[in-house]
Design goal:
Mean pLDDT: 95
CATH superfamily: Glycogen Phosphorylase B
Strand content: 15-25%
Low-confidence stretches: none
Structural class: alpha/beta
Strand order of the largest sheet: 3-2-1-4-5-6-7
Number of helices: 5
CATH topology: Rossmann fold
Radius of gyration: 15 Å
CATH class: Alpha Beta
Number of domains: 1
């Protein structure tokens, strides 16, 4: 059975990712997200859940150190979990993991957020060059990401 890592930051990106829940039983599923009070329930609901440190870019100094910490923790988690595929809805939490996975020749699937209809996200721009499959939920986004696949909404 393929091991699939679903990774995203907390909040809306996590909500979008959890819309893929119907896929979870078909794989050895692992969820990775940021640790916040609002998503601690994931440990009770799913078999394999790992947390990274929550950080926000609005606090740049602390965010920088949290990003570095999360990079090394992501590397550790990647080696521990050994996923065959990494699926993400973004954002910054997933960038390091996707590059680590790409380095080890794992499949990377990025789903650009439903929230953006006419502009690229920073994480989308960073992962687009390495993604094996890059999905957009708005047809208009194909102008910004010409090699993307229009998938429609995941909600």
């Amino acid at each position: 059975m393929k091991k699939v890592m679903f990774i995203s930051s907390t909040g809306g990106h996590l909500s979008e990712m959890l819309e893929l829940e119907e896929l979870f039983p078909y794989y050895d599923t692992v969820i990775v997200t940021e640790k916040t009070k609002s998503n601690l329930y994931l440990k009770d609901k799913y078999k394999q859940v790992y947390y990274l440190v929550y950080g926000t870019k609005s606090h740049f100094l602390t965010y920088f150190f949290k990003f570095i910490y999360n990079f090394f923790k992501s590397f550790y988690l990647f080696l521990k979990i050994k996923p065959d595929v990494i699926i993400t809805t973004g954002t910054h939490t997933a960038v390091s993991m996707c590059y680590i996975g790409h380095l080890f020749k794992k499949k990377i699937i990025f789903i650009e957020t439903l929230a953006n209809r006419t502009t690229k996200t920073m994480s989308g721009s960073m992962i687009y060059p390495i993604a094996d499959y890059f999905l957009v939920q708005w047809e208009s986004m194909l102008k910004l990401y010409p090699k993307a696949i229009y998938s429609g909404f995941i909600f």
